Amino acid sequence: MNEVTEDRTQGDGDQTKGVIKEKVGKITGDRSTEVSGKLDQAKGKLERKIGDAKDTLRHEDDRNR
C-alpha cells in the first residue's frame, strides 16, 4: 500500500471511529467521549486531506518529468 493510500485509509478509519465515539458519548452523557470523537473526526479529515495533497503533488511531479 502506498503512502497516499495509507493516509486516506487512516483518515477514513479515524473519521469512522470518531463518529462512533461521538454518538456513544451523546447516548451515555459522557462529554469527554463525545469531544474525543469530534477530535478523531477532525484528525481523520486532516489525514484524508494530507493524502489528497500528496497525491496532487505526485501527479504534478509526474507531469513535469
List the helices and strands and how they pair.
Elements (H helix, E strand, L loop, with lengths): L2 H26 L2 H33 L2
Helix pairs in contact: 1-2
Protein model, in words:
The protein has 65 residues and is mainly α. The chain has one domain. The protein is 91% helix and 0% strand. The chain has helices at 3-28, 31-63. Helix 1 (3-28) packs antiparallel against helix 2. The radius of gyration is 15 Å and the shape is rod-shaped.
Characteristics:
65 residues; mainly alpha; 2 helices; rod-shaped
Output mean pLDDT.
91
Strand residues, percent = under 5%
Number of extended strands: 0
The tally of structural domains comes to: 1
How much is the radius of gyration in Å? Answer: 15 Å
User: How helix-rich are the residues, as a percent range?
Assistant: over 70%
Shape: rod-shaped
Main beta sheet, described?
Answer: none
> In DSSP terms, counting alpha (H) and pi (I) runs of 4 or more, how many helices?
2
Oligomer: single chain
Q: How far do the termini sit from each other?
A: 24 Å
Strand and helix order: HH
Secondary structure category = mainly alpha
Weakly predicted, low-confidence segments: none
Summary?
By secondary structure, this protein is mainly alpha-helical.
